[in-house]
Amino acid sequence: MRIGTGYDSHRFEQGRQLMLGGVNIPGHPGLSGHSDGDAIAHAVIDAILGAAAAGDIGSHFPQEDDTWKGADSMDLLEQTRRVLEERGFRVVNIDVTVICERPKIAPHIDAMKKRLGAVLQVTSDRVSIKGKSNEGLGWIGAGEGVAVHSVALIDQCSNFPDSGGTGRGSRTL
Ligand code: MG
């Protein structure tokens, strides 16, 4: 097994749709960015790539490349999962902490878990998302943007119970 961490931050920007964890949250300005600005997706991508020592989001989806302009970050996450699989790994679980004053994250957590789980091809009980405020401190406290921390655990494909492997690979995860 291998572990990786990811971090991302984005500024709120009027006139953009707010996308977080692949879920549209209405009634709040969106996040600035080359793609849809989904900071949860980006932090998770970096955690997964970090676990595989496979670079980072910028090396796989360069901002200079117009291919990714306005991209749905779930597409980037799906491509990241493929990069992982090409290297012989799959995601075991991810854990995410979202830090912002508004919007409240809790009402959207179930939908985010389902969306991220579907893209990463893990059950949603392997996806954890926690929302926190910054107690009014600093730029997050001032409501300027959102910060996201993530951890991902990955394992060799052969170690998953559905891989048809034997011995170590047949253990229940
Ligand atoms: Mg980002």
From N to C, what is the helix and strand string? EEEEHHHEHEHE
Give the DSSP E fraction (strand runs of 2 or more residues): 25-35%
Number of helical regions: 5
CATH A-level architecture = 2-Layer Sandwich
Bound molecules: magnesium ion
Please indicate the count of domains: 1
End-to-end C-alpha gap: 12 Å
Question: What is the SS-derived class?
Answer: alpha+beta
Describe the structure.
The protein has 173 residues and is an alpha+beta fold. The protein has a single domain, classed as 60s Ribosomal Protein L30, Chain: A (2-Layer Sandwich), CATH 3.30.1330. Helices cover 27% and strands 27% of the residues. The protein has five helices and seven strands; from the N terminus they run ββββαααβαβαβ. The protein has helices spanning 39-51, 57-60, 73-86, 109-120, 138-141; strands at 2-13, 19-20, 23-24, 30-31, 89-99, 127-132, 145-156. The strands form two sheets. The protein has a five-stranded mixed sheet with strand order 4-1-7-5-6. Strands 2-3 form a two-stranded antiparallel sheet. α4 (109-120) links the parallel β5 (89-99) and β6. The longest helix has 14 residues, at 73-86. It is globular. The chain starts with a strand and ends in a 17-residue tail after the last strand. It binds magnesium ion (MG).
